[in-house]
Design a protein that fits this description.
mainly alpha; Growth Hormone, Chain: A; 2 domains; 16 helices; 0% strand; globular
Length: 406
């Protein structure tokens, strides 16, 4: 009976993480584009001005996320989750009352603040404390809810916008925030298993650096730089899928565009679980190599393919990039720096990753406007895919040379 209760507690941690990621990334980011056109029409403004609200959300989310470890040291986890949820609910609901761009931008900044408090950094820290074994798998299960929430709820929100307007849709989204965050608030979860009288799941992993005190060990500048660059290049690669429909149209295959987006989002979600399983079953280095090969093959297919089937299959392969940018980045940081230093390194890597994605999403559109073709951008992305692999290899080489194994 006691063993079953312990297992249930571990799954409660994962369930809470799934809900928080589903809220902060799925509801906060992946369905945001559904509102843009309707808001732009009512406010009589351009799409760029409205879509700037998402850029604001992403940037605030990332910057506040850097402070999440600070808050977690000073406030109990439950209080932080409750405060973040209240702020997230109120700001999302008030979007339904927005009467202009300033209100839209301000409220999305508040939503981003809440997401930074209880989003990716907080969730991955909790999972790192609770899981030594199957850590990557549990991280990937939580992360995949960003894509699943967006995919499953997009038809619902789109239908509400079409039938009742975008203001009602924001009110429904605010209620969904509460539903998704309820497991984290109601379930008996803690930041660390010791606070619940338990131990981390599984035995101590090998080939992970010894856990130093968080303040007592100097972080390797070389390793830190490589992880930051890995976050930048891997996230830059994930900036291209929003342009799949435009790519199909440029090939005069517009009908394939929607299926390309769907194929990429499917592997966005399930690819994260796959890479998590591969990392735990084999190792991170092998998993990055395998996924990089898949993404590279997909990129060449997007560059050279000129029929529906090739483009859809290539989009599916390219969607594996999300697993590298999100799950592999978390696992790489943990393996190279250990759990104690994770909270010092990962928030900065997540910030660099978010900035990179935001910048390169715009760059991709600008390149097409300049050359009337996506060929230069895809060619550049192929270089970045290869660079991502080389950065991981270099990080492991430096780690192996400088850090003794235990």
């Amino acid at each position: 009976m006691r063993m079953n209760r312990a297992k249930n507690r571990y799954w409660m941690i994962v369930a809470a993480g799934c809900g928080l990621i589903g809220t902060c990334l799925g509801l906060g980011i992946n369905i945001s584009g559904l509102f843009f056109s309707a808001i732009a029409d009512e406010f009589q403004t351009g799409m760029a001005e409205v879509s700037a609200s998402l850029t604001i959300y992403n940037l605030v989310h990332a910057f506040v996320g850097m402070s999440a470890p600070f808050f977690l040291k000073r406030f109990r986890l439950k209080k932080m989750l409750a405060a973040g949820t209240v702020l997230q609910f109120i700001s999302t609901f008030l979007l339904s009352k927005a009467n202009g761009l300033p209100a839209l931008w301000l409220l999305n900044a508040l939503r981003g603040t809440a997401a930074g408090m209880i989003g990716t950094v907080t969730v991955t820290m909790i999972i790192n404390y609770w899981f030594n074994q199957n850590n990557a798998l549990m991280t990937s299960i939580a992360m995949c809810f960003s894509g699943l929430a967006g995919a499953l709820l997009s038809p619902l929100i789109s239908g509400i916008i079409a039938g009742s307007g975008w203001r009602v849709a924001y009110q429904v989204t605010a209620l969904l925030v509460l539903v998704f965050n309820l497991p984290a608030i109601l379930l008996p979860i803690t930041l660390k298993p010791e606070e619940a009288g338990m131990k981390p799941y599984g035995e101590k992993q090998k080939n992970v650096i010894a856990e130093p005190s968080e303040k007592g060990t100097k972080i390797s500048a070389g390793l830190f730089a490589l992880v930051i660059l890995f976050g930048i290049t891997s996230s830059a690669v994930t900036a291209f899928p929003p342009h799949f429909a435009g790519l199909a149209e440029s090939y005069q295959l517009a009908a394939a565009g929607a299926l390309m987006v769907s194929a990429g989002m499917i592997t966005n979600s399930f690819g994260k679980i796959l890479i998590g399983r591969l990392i735990d079953r084999y190792n991170l280095k092998f998993s990055i190599r395998l996924f990089t090969a898949g993404v590279l093959l997909g990129a060449f297919g997007l560059l050279l393919g000129r029929n529906d089937i090739v483009l859809i299959l290539s989009s599916a392969l390219y969607g594996l990039a999300y697993g590298i940018a999100m799950v592999a980045l978390v696992s790489l940081t943990r393996e190279l720096f250990g759990t104690a230093q994770y909270s010092r390194v990962y928030p900065k890597a997540a910030l660099a990753s978010t900035l990179s994605n935001a910048i390169f999403t715009t760059v991709a559109g600008g390149v097409y406007d300049r050359y009337s073709s996506y060929t230069p951008m895809i060619t550049f992305l192929i270089i970045l895919i290869i660079a991502t692999l080389l950065l991981a290899e270099a990080a492991y080489r430096i780690h192996d040379l400088t850090v003794p194994k235990i």
